[in-house]
Design brief:
The protein starts with 5 loop residues before the first strand and ends with a strand. It folds into 2 domains: 78 residues, Gyrase A, domain 2; 151 residues, Cyclophilin-like (Cyclophilin, Beta Barrel). The protein has 242 residues and is α+β, with helices and mostly antiparallel strands. Strands 5-12-9-10-7-6-13 form a 7-stranded mixed β-barrel. A hairpin with a 4-residue loop joins β1 and β2. The protein is built from 5 helices and 14 strands.
């Protein structure tokens, strides 16, 4: 993590505040603290804040403030990060059926790592993953901290269609596809949980700063959960992060 923030111009309506070039919890926490501090200021010239792994994009109204003024606002906000209290993180458990038609790349990951598929599942489901950021589509959680033992590179040629609910890995990241889309991550499982629903309030089950825990289930159990979700009788397991 850099000691001081660096500023990058992003067109005439945004500036990127960078804190580092690695995926780590300390850098990401600083990004989220800055986003919270800027939100509390309610500066009329600040239009939108987009936190990422290691940086914060600050969209502003150029008719109200200049980029230099935005950078001054950011530097002032940085002086008060110690006073910011982030929401208490929660852990959302995501039942996941691994392998088979729902996880077509599980065998490739196991072969690449030189371990049985069951061990890949145990490693992937054996920890809580911090939600570092949300993107590239509504509801997609970027989860860092995947074990290097199974951190396989993404596909050289992306799939044109990845099913809704697919659980994938790419390098030392893992994530869940909230809707059907093209994608190049290695698919190792599937969850019936609707992690994004535009008709719900809130529309997503988690946000940056929360944690996700994948819970292995059988295909039959996953299908039963899907039926319960459709009937409105299933409730996700959510608990406070210790």
């Amino acid at each position: 993590m850099h000691e001081r923030a660096s500023f990058l111009t992003a067109g005439d309506r945004a500036v990127v505040v960078e804190y580092g070039d690695t995926i780590d919890e300390a850098t990401n926490r600083r990004v989220r603290l800055l986003a919270a501090a800027l939100s509390l200021r309610h500066d009329p010239g600040i239009v939108e804040l987009v936190p990422t792994y290691r940086s914060l994009m600050v969209h502003y109204d150029p008719l109200r403030v200049t980029q230099d003024e935005v950078e001054t606002i950011v530097l002032e906000a940085e002086q008060h990060l110690a006073d910011v209290v982030l929401p208490r993180p929660k852990v959302v458990e995501i039942p996941t059926a691994y392998g088979g038609d729902y996880g077509p790349d599980l065998g490739d990951v196991a072969a690449w790592a030189g371990i049985p598929a069951d061990e890949v599942i145990a490693i992937h489901s054996g920890r809580e993953y911090l939600v570092y950021m949300m993107g590239f589509m509504a509801g997609f959680p970027y989860l860092g901290g995947l074990s290097p033992r199974i951190a396989m590179p993404r596909l050289s040629s992306p799939r044109t269609k990845v099913p809704t609910g697919s659980v994938g890995i790419a390098q030392e990241q893992t994530g869940i596809y909230p809707t059907e889309t093209p994608g190049g991550w290695r698919l190792i499982g599937w969850t019936p949980v609707r992690i994004f629903d535009a008709t719900s309030d809130p529309p997503v089950l988690f946000e940056a700063g929360d944690y996700i825990r994948f819970v292995p289930t059988t295909i039959e159990q996953a299908r039963t959960i899907a039926e319960q979700i459709a009937a409105g009788t299933w409730t996700p397991t959510v608990r406070d992060h210790e």
